[in-house]
UniProtKB/TrEMBL annotation:
<keyword id="KW-0813">Transport</keyword>
<dbReference type="GO" id="GO:0043190">
    <property type="term" value="C:ATP-binding cassette (ABC) transporter complex"/>
</dbReference>
<feature type="transmembrane region" description="Helical">
    <location>
        <begin position="236"/>
        <end position="260"/>
    </location>
</feature>
<keyword id="KW-0472">Membrane</keyword>
<feature type="transmembrane region" description="Helical">
    <location>
        <begin position="204"/>
        <end position="224"/>
    </location>
</feature>
<feature type="transmembrane region" description="Helical">
    <location>
        <begin position="16"/>
        <end position="38"/>
    </location>
</feature>
<protein>
    <submittedName>
        <fullName>ABC transporter permease</fullName>
    </submittedName>
</protein>
<comment type="similarity">
    <text>Belongs to the MlaE permease family.</text>
</comment>
<feature type="transmembrane region" description="Helical">
    <location>
        <begin position="50"/>
        <end position="75"/>
    </location>
</feature>
<dbReference type="GO" id="GO:0005548">
    <property type="term" value="F:phospholipid transporter activity"/>
</dbReference>
<dbReference type="InterPro" id="IPR030802">
    <property type="entry name" value="Permease_MalE"/>
</dbReference>
<feature type="transmembrane region" description="Helical">
    <location>
        <begin position="151"/>
        <end position="183"/>
    </location>
</feature>
<keyword id="KW-0812">Transmembrane</keyword>
<dbReference type="InterPro" id="IPR003453">
    <property type="entry name" value="ABC_MlaE_roteobac"/>
</dbReference>
<dbReference type="Pfam" id="PF02405">
    <property type="entry name" value="MlaE"/>
</dbReference>
<keyword id="KW-1133">Transmembrane helix</keyword>
Amino acid sequence: MLNKAKSGVENVGNRAIAFVEELGQMMIMLGEAIVWAFRPPYRLRIWAQALDMVGVGSLPIVLLTGVFSGLVLAYQSFYAFRMFNAESLVGGTVAVSLIRELGPVLAGLMVAGRTGSAMTTELGTMRVTEQIDAMAVMAVNPIQYLVTPRIIASVLMLPVLTMLFNLVGISAAYVLSVFVLEVDPGIFLSKIRDFVAPIDLLKSGVKAAAFGMVIALVGCYKGFYASGGAKGVGEATTSSVVTSSVSILFIDYIFTVLMWD
């Protein structure tokens, strides 16, 4: 019995040490990526491809998620507020919920599932086929060539995707509320103006940028250090999506407490 308890404690300790080591290696990779962002050569074509992959590639799934999030939120809010004859609050409630929380979080989760996993798979395949080692032999820094463009693209594009998510979500809620649930359109829009301040949009963008950095950093790190052939790449991809998703939810809580306390 004592041996089992000791083994359990050792297992937890080893996991904690491995987590701290992995976190430290991620921070080192992030620091290197930032340094290399300001050092030539500047491969603008690679940066443009990364922007296209993160932004344009993720746009359909983000917009689709935004539409249905706005519809569901408006529908549920309407029937909840109708119990108190407060249907006029639907517009403001939907806008605040999307801009402050659901927009950045759901957009980040969609990008993590689509683009973050793609980053891990691509870099992991390059690692196990020794393409990354070949780049280093040819005096091409792998961090500058592979990691830096993806991190910068994610930081830049996540706020844009989040604002589009908020826009289509609020628009869908407006259509449902006004044309189906018969909420007064003027009241719907006036409550948005009352509930949402311009600073909320800025805070939402800051959240999204942080999520983008986490998605790209985790995705690139997991792929960059993948091993074990095809199976190892698959495990790294799964780990990347799970880690990114949990990190987004954790960071969202921290940011919410700091920004809207």
